[in-house]
Design goal:
There is one protein chain. The mean pLDDT is about 95. By secondary structure, the protein is an alpha/beta fold. Helix content is about 45%, strand content about 15%. A 7-stranded parallel sheet has the order 3-2-1-4-5-6-7, with helices on both faces.
Length: about 260
């Protein structure tokens, strides 16, 4: 299927690895030019080179911290226009909420709620004027089924979800959609780090915890980041213009609810 987005420009945050990289790669596979962002320059440059070599699109790497005004300005200035915005930030640390300070909460909210909102604010009006825009926020399955060890993420990402629910109904009439992708357990570095934290709390080896987590997934495996990237590409497509304000859960069937 031709997704109808070849030649568009996308800003994909947190794209040097993991789910952000997967989204960038899938968009590039559809002919979308990219500005990709991450904090660490070398892995980001390597990701940009790899995507450009494999797809032939223009890929601009901007190593900066988008949780700061200066970082956001640098990333936004690197694209001639932003037709597609993929918000993504590394999740805050796991742990017992009793151990978190006010500063921990502010950092989590700033990275996982306020930064996406600032990037949306910076791009949405131009999208409306051009009558095309796709905004995808990578959040977490914890928005649907909170995880006790992820208190910071539960709170910050749920706040973003509530904000998007209102705005997405206002922009869709202008062919600008805003949706959230909620990943479950995918085979990423972030997942391995979290597994190690949980294993430490339970006093078991990380591989034991990994196998326990896999056993809890009806699909019987961790997700492949490429699957996630393909879902992102669809939400950014011309065909997805009637989909907005949705929380797209991709978790191999782990969430047991009907709704």
């Amino acid at each position: 299927m031709d997704l109808g987005i070849a030649g568009k420009w996308a800003l994909v945050c947190g794209a040097s690895k993991g789910l952000g990289y997967a989204c960038a790669r899938s968009l590039a596979g559809e002919g979308v030019n990219l500005v990709i962002n991450a904090r660490t320059a070398q892995p980001l440059a390597e990701a940009a080179q790899r995507i450009g070599d494999e797809t032939g699109v223009t890929v601009v790497a901007v190593a900066c911290d988008v949780t700061t005004p200066q970082g956001r300005a640098e990333a936004l200035a690197a694209a001639p226009q932003v037709d597609i915005l993929v918000n993504n930030a590394g999740g805050p640390p796991a742990g017992d909420f009793r151990e978190f300070s006010r500063d921990d909460w502010i950092r989590a909210i700033d990275a996982n709620m306020l930064t996406p909102i600032e990037l949306i604010r910076a791009t949405v009006d131009a999208m409306i004027a051009r009558r095309f825009g796709r905004i995808v926020n990578i959040t977490s399955a914890a928005v649907k089924a909170p995880i006790d060890a992820l208190a910071l993420s539960n709170g910050a990402r749920s706040g973003l979800t509530g904000f998007v629910a209102g705005l997405a109904r206002k922009t869709v009439a202008h062919n600008v959609t805003i949706n959230n992708l909620l990943p479950g357990m995918f085979d990423t570095e972030r997942q391995r780090q979290f597994t190690a934290v949980v294993a430490g709390r339970m006093n078991v080896a990380p591989e034991v915890e990994r196998q326990r987590r896999i056993a809890s997934i009806p699909a019987g495996r961790l997700g492949d980041p490429h699957e996630f990237g393909q879902a992102c590409a669809y939400l950014c497509s011309a065909q997805a213009s009637f989909v907005t304000g949705q929380n797209f859960l991709i978790d191999g069937g782990t969430y047991p609810g009907t709704f």
